[in-house]
Amino acid sequence: xxxxxxxxxxxxxxxxxxxxxxxxxxxxxxxxxxxxxxxxxxxxxxxxxxxxxxxxxxxxxxxxxxxxxxxxxxxxxxxxxxxxxxxxxxxxxxxxxxxxxxxxxxxxxxxxxxxxxxxxxxxxxxxxxxxxxxxxxxxxxxxxxxxxxxxxxxxxxxxxxxxxxxxxxxxxxxxxxxxxxxxxxxxxxxxxxxxxxxxxxxxxxxxxxxxxxxxxxxxxxxxxxxxxxxxxxxxxxxxxxxxxxxxxxxxxxxxxxxxxxxxxxxxxxxxxxxxxxxxxxxxxxxxxxxxxxxxxxxxxxxxxxxxxxxxxxxxxxxxxxxxxxxxxxxxxxxxxxxxxxxxxxxxxxxxxxxxxxxxxxxxxxxxxxxxxxxxxxxxxxxxxxxxxxxxxxxxxxxxxxxxxxxxxxxxxxxxxxxxxxxxxxxxxx
Length: 429
Known about the structure:
This protein has 429 residues and is of the alpha/beta class. It contains 17 helices and twelve strands. Strands 3-2-1-4-5-6 form a six-stranded parallel β-sheet, sandwiched between helices. It has a six-stranded mixed β-sheet with strand order 7-8-12-9-10-11, with helices on both faces. The two termini are 15 Å apart.
């Protein structure tokens, strides 16, 4: 029996998330028992929304008689109980004092390692905020203020992280630089193109960016940064503060990165769910970026072409995509990029019959709300009209959450403890 479209969409999202579960994907990327025996000790550190599940995966598969300890920091509510690795919860998407304290502890522990030790770094999306150790002279309040402003500006994550790396004592390759040990970084990617220097602001990766570029990002997105932030960035641009470690730096000869989860395998897992139900799955791209409402309008136009002209695909078909869109916050609504995309897509699909969709973040948290995203049904706009909801007004107020909450169409999962970015499926039955 073929599942109902709503159930099929939810099942596909669960499959996408499961395909990125570190408890499943991480173990095969760990060093062998023979390799582990060759190190004096192993220190595990890390940050991100997947940090706790990654730490638990390490513990479950590490030799019981091999030294192992460490500390990872994850978002509030995303922790798990580990026995050998301490798990700390901190603020995200805006950093807080808990993240600052944890990052300071991590830097101190990393600096104490010897050349014969192994530094195992668990990196996942969200680490830029959670591994918050501001540069000397920059208070945590200043880092919080500029982070919030950048997130609201509509700037892409790579540009936001260019700024954050140059306001940090631990990101932009500086974590690896602080240690004499061999470094193995295991990475769950939430960045389009799996750019290691951008994921969690690349604590162990060479940084191609500069202080001057960080200042240019603030100008380009009209971000008014605190005086202490500007003073530090200008000092760096003038050469009075050392740059982040660059590509070609000899220190990276002892650093290895292994990608343990990313968007494409998750989209492929979702595609298998649809194919098993007799629906052709078309993977458009896992690299979709841009302003959420504008990208949604393009996707709506493609779906309409399929519905009205059987081009470039025939029904039944599902259009799959991943990536990370942005939202320029102009209103006061409660929303995130996924519900913003979904609301704009609902308008773009007006009048298209048998059109269903799900737009959700694989970490289970869309922005700072309690939903992963939202579902669209063929009667979304009709039900909204009956409930007195104005989709255009709510979209202008960046309030997709209220729209879909009123309809009972929010996707609620709670923390998934992984993060391979957004999942979008438009089903034309």
